[in-house]
Each structure stands twice: as structure tokens, then as C-alpha cells.
Amino acid sequence: MASPILIEEATVQDLQHAFKNKSLTSKQLVEYYRDNIFIQAPLLKAVIEVNPDAMSQADAADREREALAPGQSLGALHGIPVLLKDNIASKDKMNTTAGSLALLTSVVPRDAGVVSKLRKAGAIILGKASLTEWANFRGKRMPGGWCARTGQGKNPYTSGDPCGSSSGSAIAAAANLAAVTLGTETDGSILSPSSNQAVVGFKPTVGLTSRAGVIPITPRQDTVGPICRTVADAVYVLDAIAGEDSNDEATVEVSKYIPKGGYKQFLKADGLKGTRLGLLRDAFFKFDQGTVQNETFERHFNTLRQRGAVLVEDLDASKFMETYKGMDKYEILAMTAEFKVAINSYLQKLEVSSVKSLKDLIEFNNKNSDLQRIKEYGQEYFVEAEATSGIGQKETEAILKLATMSRDGIEKLMRENNLDALLSPSSSASSILATGQHPGIIVPAGYGREGLPFGLCFGGLKGSEPTLIKIAYDFEQATKIRKPPSHFNSS
């Protein structure tokens, strides 16, 4: 087998180069990640299942590579192992459960749209990553990274809270348990764990990637995106999964944003030059003087300027934040009703399942309260959603209010000031991006005094992925903050 030194922290481009010069095979790569997962599983609890078909998929990828005629090439993800968050359906021998025992042994009708695209790109479906159960929409006391199928996931840098519902995907990417991973976000679930695990998280415009076959919270905000160790790797994944899917109507309209030639063309070393970045210090960057975060972000602001960006600071932060007053209340009001409709629809389409409705899920949890830890973590969101009766007047008003907030908030701010991106630390702007269906990409920015990573997020308007990629890639290349976790390092 190839030396682990070759694979540890290897990028997609590194791996493809190793495939090409025959110093590595996809089979060896799958063996490496599989062994790492088995070693780390008791510690990190980042992976629920390893695909029993991963090795045969690797063998097939190796044969396809060997059969290439001179001058031919395969896509960037061909032969690359991918971990899927366990709310993304795969029609194979693995389960899709959102981390809950209630959906164990259920059978999905087909691959999720993004999984079909990954298979078409030649990627290997390595397994299912853990998550905060039900994408953190079950109980209000649910700790980040806990699900009934694995227990409590751990941050590989601190052994603490991995944060956000795509926790397993972020842990796995950070700890080198897969080449690349997929997560989902409704509000913060890609950006937050990516920040806490020193990886790159890419939340696309809602509808840019298909949600068909993804266990839903709300189609209005749900999106699927990559969690990887580098911006380039995230872009290779986005190129593979973005685009139309007949099973998700939103993708038909949103696919108009996909540039001819895809997204990798925007991985430019001078991507910051001439950009205008919104810096709302009082809204997002109010750190005490002398703190690690304060000093680190000030250095990063200088780096952005040195790379040719203009930081626009003469913005009214208080007026901007006032626009979003009450956002959380409206968001949860709309989301609760939307969840009941969406989850009932998903469950009813399963080919095999012991639960067919949200009411069934609540009953299952009550009957298995110890295994599901109902007393400790609750299922208040489930119960509140079940009590709703569809999208009525108050829910419609809440949705309209959220749209108005986005129009008068981030959309107005960016257009009136000709901004290319809005800066924010960690996931502090996630709700603003989520409720407006806007994209964001987070890049490792530093480490706190106790070693907890934190990131810098670049948010934009719908369809602004090309600009965000240029900005994030240039920043990443200029800073190169990411380092693998030493405590759980497998090499």
C-alpha cells in the first residue's frame, strides 16, 4: 500500500496525480480511509456506516483508469471516496436514517439527486457520516453531534462540541477519514461545524444542488454542499453535484446560475483583486481587544487589503441588524409547519419503513425513550410541528416577512454598496444567508487559546458562487491556516 504520508491531508488534485503516476490506486485509498475510520470510530464517532460496496467501486474505478486510451482523462472526482451525511439517501446496502433508530432498515426509493451525480462523476460512496440527529430538528436540548446511532461525536481538535448538524462530515474531513464529504444546511449546519473543525464548508444557493432524496426540514432553506479540507476540493465537489434534477423543481430555475465551464475556472490566485467586501464590525466582529480572535481577524483584514480587496466599513451596522429584528421567531414559525409537510411526504415515499408520518416518529421515540434519550434531549420540535395544520395565514406572513428582511437587509446592503461579499466570523451570519437562500463559504481562519478552530465566512447573493470561490481561494492560498488535528492524527 502507498505510504500514509502521501494520503494524509492529500487534496483531490494530489490523489489524481498519484493515480496517474500509479503510486496509488483507488482500492488502496479506500483501504486507508476505511482503516482510519475503524481506528477513530470509538473516539470521534464521525462515521455511522462504511459502504460494503466501496471496495468493489474502487476496483471498478481502477479498471476504468487502466483502460484509458492515451490522452484520455477522467473527472476530478473519479475514484475519489466521498462520505455522505446520513440524511442523504443512497440506494445501496447502507441505511439512511438522519441518525435515528426510527429509520433503521428503511428502504429509500432511489439515490438522492446529488448521489446520482457523484456516481456519474465516478466518485466512490465510502459511507455515511454521523450528524446531530434529524439535522438538529428534534429536541431543543440536543447537543451538537449527538445521534442515537453513534452517540456523541467529538471535535478532533478539542474532544469537545463539534457543533452544527453536519458534524460527522466536518469531523471526518478534518481527521482525514475521507477525501471529501457532503453535508446539508438549513441554517448553519455546514458553516458552523466547518468553522469548528478547521475545514472549508460551502453552503450553495438554495436549489443549486438537488435536495431530492435528502431527509428534509424545509425545502425553502435546505441545501446540500461540500465539506472539505481545501477550497479547491469543495469546488470540485460542487462542480459534480450542481445542476438540474427532475425530482427537485427548484434546480430547474436555479441552474441558470451555473457558469459555462463550471466552477473550477474561478480558482484564481488573484481572486481578491478589485473586490469589495462588506465589513460590519459592530454587527459581527465585536471581540475584546487582545483576544486571539480580535488580533487574528485584524491580520486577515490587512491580508485582504494587501491582496487587492477594498474593505467597505462605512456601513450602518445597527440599521442592518434592525432589519432582521424578530428573524428567529419568524424562521422557526415557518420552519415548524414546513417540516411537518416535508417529512410526512418523505416518509410516505419510502419503499419500506416502520414509520410513515411525523406522528409515528413521535410515538417511536416515546416507546424507545431511553435509546433515543428523549428525557435528556427532548423532541419539542417534532411535537410542535405535529401540532401545526399546514401553511396557514401566520406561516405565510412569516415567510413573507423573512423575504422582506432579506430584500431590505443583505440584498439592499450589497447592491447599494456594490459589495461582492459580506464578511462574518464563524457562522454568525448563517441565519441571514439561510432565510434569504443565499450562498456562503467558510475558510479556516485561526485557533482559539484552547485550540478550538474558527473560520472566516464570505457570504453573497443568490448565484454569486463564482465570486465567492475567487475570494475564498485567494484568501486560503494567502493564509494557509489549516493544520490537521494533532490529538487524533492517524499518521
Summarize the structure.
This protein is an alpha/beta fold. The chain has helices at about 5, 10-20, 25-45, 55-65, 115-120, 135, 165-175, 190-195, 230-240, 250-255, 280-285, 290-305, 315-325, 325-350, 360-365, 370, 375, 380-385, 395-415, 430-435, 465-480; strands spanning about 45-50, 80-85, 125-130, 145, 150, 180-185, 200-205, 225-230, 275-280, 310, 420-425, 440-445, 455-460.
Word description of this protein:
This is Amidase domain-containing protein. It comes from Hibiscus sabdariffa. The chain has 21 helices and 13 strands. The protein is an alpha/beta fold and 491 residues long. The strands form 2 sheets. Strands 1-3-2-6-8-7-12-13-11-9-10 form an 11-stranded mixed β-sheet. It has a two-stranded antiparallel sheet with strand order 4-5. Helix 3 runs antiparallel to helix 4 and helix 14 crosses helix 19. The protein is globular, with a radius of gyration of 21 Å. The protein starts with a helix and ends in a 12-residue tail after the last helix.
List the helices and strands and how they pair.
Elements: H1 4-7, H2 12-20, H3 26-44, E1 47-50, H4 54-66, E2 81-85, H5 113-120, E3 124-129, H6 133-136, E4 146-147, E5 151-152, H7 167-174, E6 180-185, H8 191-196, E7 200-203, E8 223-228, H9 231-241, H10 249-254, E9 276-278, H11 281-284, H12 292-306, E10 310-312, H13 317-323, H14 327-348, H15 358-367, H16 369-372, H17 374-377, H18 380-386, H19 393-416, E11 421-425, H20 430-435, E12 440-447, E13 453-459, H21 465-479
Parallel strand pairs: 2-3, 2-6, 9-10, 9-11
Antiparallel strand pairs: 1-3, 4-5, 6-8, 7-8, 7-12, 11-13, 12-13
